[in-house]
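Lab notebook, page 48
Experiment: co-folding of the full assembly
Goal: obtain a model of how the components sit together before planning crosslinking
Operator: M.T.
Materials (sequences as entered):
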Amino acid sequence: MNGYNFAYLDEQTKRMIRRALLKAVAIPGHQVPFGSREMPLPYGWGTGGIQVTASVLGAADTLKVIDQGADDTTNAVSIRRFFARTAGVATTTDTNEATIIQTRHRIPEKALREDQIIVYQVPQPEPLSKLEPSRAETRRMHALAEYGSMHVRLYEDITRFGHVAISYDYPVMVNHRYLMAPSPIPAFDNPKMHMMPALQLFGAGREKRIYAIPPYTDVRSLDFDDHPFRTTRAPQCCALCGADDSYLDEVVTDDQGGRMFVCSDTDHCETRQAEGHTGTGEPVVKEAAE
Amino acid sequence: MTEETLLSARGLSLHFGKVPALVNVDADLWPGEVLAVVGESGSGKTTLLNVLSGRMRADSGVTWYRDPQSRLHDVHAMPAPALRALHRSDWGFVHQNPRDNLRMSVSAGGNVGERLMAAGNRHYGNIREAAIDWLAQVEIDPARVDDMPRTFSGGMLQRLQIARTLVTHPRLVFMDEPTGGLDVSVQARLLDLIRSLVARLNIAVVLVTHDLAVARLLAHRIMVMQRGEVVETGLTDQVLDDPQHAYTQLLVSSVLQA
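Observation: model returned without errors.
Model output:
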């Protein structure tokens, strides 16, 4: 595209971001500050992820962008079209074909491979932010690996609800050393990060932080010995493809309490449908709504 | 005394600009002993406490701490991680205002359990059991283990802070006016509690107070400070019954006899 450098960012900026990425990969889970740029989309829409993607994108790459698992939402479509125009790279909705996947709030259901990179959009990179408002202090806590207070949050949840009620952005220990916010992916996706063959990169544009998990790195969700980490999903099957093991979205279908559970990963759902799997196709009948 | 000191300070001096906060202060603390630091406000009591606990640096002088393996550590030359680990395990700090130390948005049980979790305890059932046990020890109804500290009275908050501090069985606790801001009957109960806990658990305490009655009740030994200097030191009863220094005499005589 005329008037723009390849993938929108100038080369100096990309070099700066790549240096931050190298450092982040060298220290798994450690937050590396970087000079975040203004991007042509609002904060909270993926300014961090889009800068990381722009820096690792090559002309031969195939890009997939998902938002809450879906390829067809405004955010995903816009970012995909942005790179198609500014970098001229091939885009896809197929997880298999993609070499770079930029994601907001989900990890694809299909297991990723060694030749793929997944880029997460991160609103709040600091897992301790709710416990300790001072960034100087949280940096010190990371440096000294003082993560006991994070368990206070889990303790409170178990006390109040009988189980840990953190359903997304569930804190993880990376490589037995750094506490890390996995971005607001559902806790359901946390186990996928453990020993993932693909490189995982995290970009927080507003907070100006980059961090990473190299391939095959130990990633553990925090828990107690007597309250081990467990994932939750809606107890239904997908209404479109019948999957009973995928993460489901609840879609309200009318104002009579009718709702439908469908896979949040649209590519996974469509692949399964093409393979001949079908669900009921019907909304769940309202239960006890008198 | 033949036993070795737990904490020793020699020649501590600190000036805030022209104001002398500490002038050549020496202090010794033996295991299981309660040392009271008394004096009027501005006499350097709290500064001394902060310097002894490594939270503040002196201009000159040294502070030695003897760990359970009988190794000596220079508190001010210790690496920050070691000092922080010490503050989380072997030492405790009881603030005048319990809200400075407690997490007000976390239940009483979570507050008591935090030091255990920081020490690496990862068993929910055990942490909760310890929290309930400690609430009982500081005379808080164990049924309130899940209540928020904001629903507690001032005296209960102070007792909760003590439970939170003592749960890891520290050997040395620094207390900064632990009974300040409480009414007299609550004070009396709290003092009674602190005295019995300290005696039973054999904890050494550096207690800062402006209240001679508190010092008389809790302390084995007493240090009287004026304008950053230690003007008199000795056994509590000896100093309070037979004060030698003019300032101590003034201090003792200014207390209303009930």
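Interpretation: Chain B touches chain A through 23 residues (CB under 8 Å).
Next step: discuss with group before ordering constructs.
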